[in-house]
Amino acid sequence: MANPATPFLVRDQNPFALIYGLPHATAARLPEDSHQGWIFSLNGSNQLIRHTSQDTELLVDLETWQLNLFYDYRLKDNWLLRIQLPLISHGGGFMDAPIDRYHEITGLPRDIRPVFEDDLIQIRYSEDQNTLLEINQRQKGLGDIALQLGWQADKSTEYALSHWLSLKLPSGDSEKLTGSGGTDIAAWSALDYRLSDASWFYGQAGLLYMNDSEVLQHRHNNWAAFATAGIAYQAWPDIQLKAQFDLHSALYDSELKYLSEVVQLTFGGSYRINAQQSIDFAIAEDIQAGASPDVNFNISWWLYY
Questions:
Q1: What's the pLDDT band for 108 if we cut at 50, 70, 90?
Q2: Residue in 176, 163, 170 with CA at minimum distance from that of residue 210
Q3: pLDDT tens digit string along 199-233?
Q4: Mean pLDDT across the chain, nearest whole number?
Q5: Beta carbons of 136 and 122 less than 8 angstroms apart
Q6: Which end of the chain is more exposed for a tag (fewer CB within 10 A), N or C?
């Protein structure tokens, strides 16, 4: 029998989206027989894009690493408090050359990569030839801390439903693109459903309210919708294979594709070390090319006790 699915802890790593309170996908089932737990999740992404639209220009040459520390605490039988502490680093990285070489070997489009030096960091946004944002040095620091509250609305061996509320606080630095400078609120519902003895469907959907931001203030939207849908297959007793779609509506009022809606596909697997621990390995690709990073790698370690 397949174990209930746990979503990959991935999201849009676009630095202009990372600063807002889009929640990672959550499991429909609160941890059973555990009063508290830790999750360590590392995401590494690489992107090189240059978009123009009328009098607007955006250049992003960047490698971003985000380490999320989650602490879960069971308040009552049907309630869970989760604290998310993100650490963010924007830099030149090391993946530029391998990604360009992979595109060259496989015949995939190399776009503008051959004309840019490897391992540099450049973020520049301009309108009417006026530069409104520019970063060309490595940035790192604490991101925006989030507090989440989950309620188990229903649960059986075949189906589960939970409702979540998140408050993102402005603990990051908007000048470093590690925070938005605003407070965000998100609400969503997560569910799972057993498809067969060996497979599960899981997903979530919700709304995000973003308070006034210090990043591209005149462009950012106050509301956005987001959703996740995935399938898990129990290939072996301790190994699950998973494919997951994550999407969200545009966070900015802009004609630039990089600031528009995003659809992302993640595939990989989970290995259950024992009853208290498991580990995820995953790779995310941008389905809507040019709207999110070219590639995102994720590894997550779950520990409950």
A1: low
A2: 170
A3: 999 999 999 999 989 999 999 999 999 999 999 99
A4: 91
A5: yes
A6: N
Per cent of the chain over pLDDT 70 is 92
CATH pick for 15-304 out of 1.10.10.200, 1.10.1660.10, 2.60.60.30, 2.40.160.40: 2.40.160.40
DSSP 42-107: EEEEEEEEEEEETTEEEEEEEEEEEEEEEEEEEEETTEEEEEEEEEEEEE--S-HHHHHHHHHHHT
Longest distance between any two alpha carbons in the chain, whole Å: 60
The residue extents of the domains of the chain are 15-304
CA dihedral sign, ordered 213, 210, 227, 22: positive
pLDDT at 173 over 90: yes
Q: Quick one: tokens of 96?
A: 């530029």
Whether the Cβ atoms of residue 295 and residue 46 lie closer than 8 Å to each other: yes
- Of 152, 195, 164, the closest CA to residue 5 belongs to 195
**Type of residue at 234:** Q
In a 3-state reduction of DSSP, which class is residue 297? strand
Answer whether 148's CB lies under 8 Å from 99's CB. Answer: no
| Residues with Cβ within 8 Å of residue 230, at least 6 apart in sequence | 5, 7, 8, 25, 201, 202, 203, 242, 243, 244, 245, 266
Q: What is the pLDDT of residue 26?
A: 96
| Length in residues, the chain | 305
